[in-house]
Amino acid sequence: MNKKLLKWEIFGAIFISIVGALFHFMFEWLGSWPPIGGIFPVNESVWEHLKLPYWPLIIYSLVEHKFITENSNNLIFAKTLAILIDLSVILITFYTFTAILGVELLIIDILSFIIGVFIGQYVSAKVMSLGEKPKWVSYISWIIFIALGLLFIIFTYLPPNLPIFLDSESGMYGII
């Protein structure tokens, strides 16, 4: 694996973890202004917490792209895999531990977020070190990545009546 890419991805994991943690509070800190709700979590639902790695990963990837283009392949595929891993680790850990323990534990939620980000960034470094993938892989990756962003925005304002969208504190859905 390319050591330069690995360093970038480790730094990215730190960046995404810190910025994601700050994003948790931004909606409230910025006056709960509805137009920013698609980016920042608007309540304590599981769904809203999935935004924590997504948007910081985009920010970091835009910066990273400028510096690693010559040393990497498959950037969008790598970042799509990274975010899918992040989200999967968060969801699997949350639902597994709450099913086993019967309660939510903040420390488990925080650790699953950080661990998911680090695993995702590691996989991203591995994928960018591989030979270039066919163009259709990039096209599908773009579709998945953009669809996730659109779903985060849409379901902030129009959340389905499903448990993943339920704010555990208020018992309501979406922007409260």
Helix-strand layout with pairing:
Blueprint: H1 3-29, H2 46-49, H3 51-68, H4 75-101, H5 106-129, H6 135-157
What does this molecule look like?
This protein has 176 residues and is mainly α. It has one domain (3-165). 70% of the residues lie in helices and 0% in strands. It has 6 helices and no strands. It has helices spanning 3-29, 46-49, 51-68, 75-101, 106-129, 135-157. Helix 1 runs antiparallel to helix 5, helix 3 (51-68) runs antiparallel to helix 4 (75-101) and helix 4 (75-101) packs across helix 6. The longest helix is centred in the N-terminal third of the chain and has 27 residues, at 3-29. It starts with a helix and ends in a 19-residue tail after the last helix.
For the largest beta-sheet, the strand count, sense and barrel status come to:
none
* Average predicted local confidence, pLDDT: 92
Number of β-strand runs: 0
Number of helices: 6
Shape: globular
Q: Main traits of this protein?
A:
globular; 176 residues; mainly alpha; 6 helices
Brief overview, please?
With 176 residues, this protein is mainly alpha-helical.
